[in-house]
């Protein structure tokens, strides 16, 4: 890290304190992060930066927010963030020192604050998420052959050291002569690899049986979709199994929506609807002028709210209750925009109408049904479910409509055919404003449910805490493969699934009046919508006509990417050649000659993706991502 010896403003003590704190972070994460926070705050607040922008203060504030975020998450150790903190602290100190030598020196160092640097990409992604609760994992560490006579305090020493990493207890299994044998039971946010490195003399493993309720819930979730899609079972037997499973799962892991609210609060709708049970709902104040209701979006169920006054206020999400993994009956309809589905429980019904039943109000076409209910006739969808060109139906040709309720609003969707089917909602990485859900039928074919209501955009950033995933054996080496004519080398620990190639499903959605192409694949009930394809990269990286053979799913730090590998090989280390670690696409899909020649000149280089540049890669390929 940079040192100061110019004799002007003394930052040597702050530099030393930050270095010590970052060293302690690797050894005792919570203690190190607390020291790092104090060290950052001790830096002179009145340093003259001689700059007309606030980039330095913004990065400094983001750095503090990132540290606070890790502390709020239970202080998990992350080598990725550890490296980012070193780089970020070094940049801040260099700027603080360089500012004393005038504007020219400041301009020379301005690149250190660039948002494209991987350290700031990592810090901003962490500082933007301040509401994460600690994610505890249960571990078991076996202690063998510790002398009871010569080293009677060994267990106490371990207990004291482990207590800084979480909640710990010791279970004595046996006393064999002069030796003790037993197990430490630890609930910690730290990773298995960190614990193994920190306490190498203990025999570590993840204890899946300590939290029986969560283990049972995970088992049921993993079993339900394969049972639902097992059409080889006899029909009656399959339905009996599904019925018994649903009844039991609702009893164990679901709750009535009304149980989240006081019984005397009258503006709560669908009180008897079963929703995922959650113990981590963030408290919110009740408002008599707001209607509360459950709404399923992206496979998760949210507490939705909307003004009762009908003042045009958008639908907002107040809390996320969790993943809804049960099956439901759906209406599947053919429209002029393609085939769509809607949850039967959220539909008022199907109606035969004529032009005289429709009326114009506020420039929109409406339909009166069920007495006082008014439904806006949907003549424009947020996306096309196929590549066919949509056509608008004239009022005189509208003969049948399906009335759907989303939020507090009713919509009348014209259709030509209607079928009743069953589906399970896939889990999406993040909710989108144009698609409400992507369902899966028993044949694993995706079924699209459009989002017809306007949603408050900040609500889409709500998300929900990622569930603890089983710790798999660490993967070593690299996967080497060609992607659209370019060679990619991916760190094996990032690869969560290596599948035979799946041709992605594609649809066209509208954003600000512009048509955009979206692609996604489905795997084990999860929907992955960051899919690199030839269509996506054509004209930028290559004009390759190679046929993909594998779909490789990368997952890290809450972001998932699917790469189409033409070939796939595993290497113990990086192959020889020139490497590209900083990756970004031109801002427009149709670039100039200079841009094309730039990428053509890199054709022989190998793009390396590892934990250090993973988020930069995601932000480079998807500039509209939350990481950008």
List keywords for this structure.
31% strand, alpha+beta, globular, Alpha-Beta Plaits, 4 domains
Count of helices?
13
Broad shape: globular
* Tally of DSSP β-strands: 32
Main structural class:
alpha+beta
Low-confidence stretches: 3-8, 147-153, 463-472, 538-542, 586-601
What would the average pLDDT be, to the nearest integer?
81
Note the beta-strand portion.
25-35%
Describe the main β-sheet briefly. 6 strands, mixed
Query: Whole-number radius of gyration?
Result: 28 Å
Biggest sheet, spatial arrangement of strands? 12-17-18-15-14-13
Distance between the termini: 27 Å
**Helix residue percentage:** 25-40%
Number of individual domains: 4
Q: What is the structure about, briefly put?
A:
The chain is of the alpha+beta class and 628 residues long. It contains 13 helices and 32 strands.
Topology:
Elements: H1 12-27, H2 29-41, H3 55-72, H4 79-98, H5 103-109, H6 118-127, E1 137-147, H7 154-163, E2 166-176, E3 179-188, H8 192-198, E4 203-206, H9 212-228, H10 235-253, E5 254-256, E6 274-276, E7 290-297, E8 300-307, E9 316-323, E10 327-335, E11 338-343, E12 347-352, E13 358-361, E14 364-369, E15 373-377, E16 383-384, E17 400-406, E18 409-414, E19 418-425, E20 435-440, E21 446-450, E22 478-483, E23 486-491, E24 495-500, E25 505-511, E26 514-523, E27 526-528, H11 534-537, E28 550-556, E29 559-565, E30 569-571, E31 579-580, H12 593-600, E32 606-609, H13 614-621
């Amino acid at each position: 890290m940079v040192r100061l010896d110019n004799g002007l403003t003394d930052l040597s003590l702050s530099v030393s304190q930050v270095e010590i704190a970052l060293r302690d972070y690797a050894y005792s994460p919570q203690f190190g992060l607390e020291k790092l926070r104090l060290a950052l705050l001790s830096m002179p607040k009145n340093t003259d930066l001689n700059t007309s922008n606030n980039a330095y203060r913004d990065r400094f504030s983001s750095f503090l927010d990132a540290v606070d975020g890790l502390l709020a998450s239970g202080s998990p150790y992350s080598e990725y963030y550890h490296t980012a903190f070193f780089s970020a602290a070094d940049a801040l100190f260099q700027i603080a020192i360089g500012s004393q030598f005038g504007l020219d020196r400041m301009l020379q160092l301005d690149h250190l604050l660039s948002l494209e640097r991987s350290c700031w990409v990592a810090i901003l992604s962490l500082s933007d998420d301040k509401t994460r609760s600690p994610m505890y994992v249960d571990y078991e560490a076996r202690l063998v052959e510790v002398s009871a006579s010569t080293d009677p305090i060994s267990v106490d020493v371990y207990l004291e050291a482990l207590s800084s990493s979480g909640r710990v207890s010791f279970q004595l299994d046996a006393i064999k002569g002069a030796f003790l044998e037993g197990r430490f039971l630890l609930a910690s946010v730290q990773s298995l690899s960190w614990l193994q490195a920190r306490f190498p003399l203990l025999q570590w493993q993840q204890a899946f049986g300590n939290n029986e309720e969560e283990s049972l819930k995970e088992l049921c979730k993993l079993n339900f979709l394969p049972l639902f899609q097992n059409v080889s079972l006899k029909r009656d037997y399959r339905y009996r199994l599904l019925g018994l499973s649903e009844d039991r799962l609702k009893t164990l892991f679901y709750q009535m929506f009304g149980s989240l609210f006081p019984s005397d609060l009258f503006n709560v709708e669908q009180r008897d609807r079963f929703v995922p049970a959650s113990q981590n709902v963030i408290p919110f104040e009740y408002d008599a002028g707001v209607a509360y209701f459950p709404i399923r979006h992206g496979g998760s169920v949210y507490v939705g709210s909307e003004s009762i006054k009908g003042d045009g206020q958008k639908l907002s999400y107040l809390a996320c209750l969790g993943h809804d993994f049960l099956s439901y009956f759906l209406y599947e309809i053919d429209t002029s925009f393609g085939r769509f589905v809607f949850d039967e429980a959220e539909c008022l019904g199907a109606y035969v109408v004529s032009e005289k039943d429709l009326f114009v109000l506020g420039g929109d076409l409406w339909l009166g049904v069920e007495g006082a209910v008014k439904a806006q006739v949907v003549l424009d969808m947020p996306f096309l479910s196929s590549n066919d060109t949509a056509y608008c139906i004239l009022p005189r040709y509208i003969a049948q409509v399906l009335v759907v309720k989303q939020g507090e609003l009713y919509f009348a969707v014209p259709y030509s055919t209607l079928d009743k089917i069953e589906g399970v909602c896939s889990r999406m990485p993040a909710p989108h404003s144009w698609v409400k859900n992507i369902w899966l039928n028993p044949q694993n074919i995706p079924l699209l449910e459009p989002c017809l209501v306007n949603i408050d955009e900040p609500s889409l950033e709500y998300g929900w805490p990622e569930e603890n995933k089983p710790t798999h054996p660490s993967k070593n080496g690299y996967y080497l493969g060609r992607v659209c004519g370019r060679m990619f080398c991916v760190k094996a620990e990032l690869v969560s699934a290596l599948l035979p190639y799946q041709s992605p499903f594609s649809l066209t959605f509208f954003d600000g009046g512009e048509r955009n192409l979206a692609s996604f694949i489905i795997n084990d009930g999860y929907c992955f919508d960051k899919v690199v394809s030839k269509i996506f990269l054509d004209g930028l990286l290559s004009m390759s006509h190679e046929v993909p053979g594998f779909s490789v799913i990368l997952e890290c730090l809450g972001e998932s990417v699917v790469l189409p590998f033409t070939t796939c090989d595993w290497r113990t280390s990086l192959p020889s050649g020139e490497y590209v670690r900083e990756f970004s696409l031109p801002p427009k899909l149709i670039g100039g000659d200079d841009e094309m020649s730039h990428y053509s000149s890199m054709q022989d280089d190998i793009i390396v993706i590892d934990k250090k540049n993973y988020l930069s890669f995601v932000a480079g390929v998807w500039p509209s991502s939350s990481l950008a």
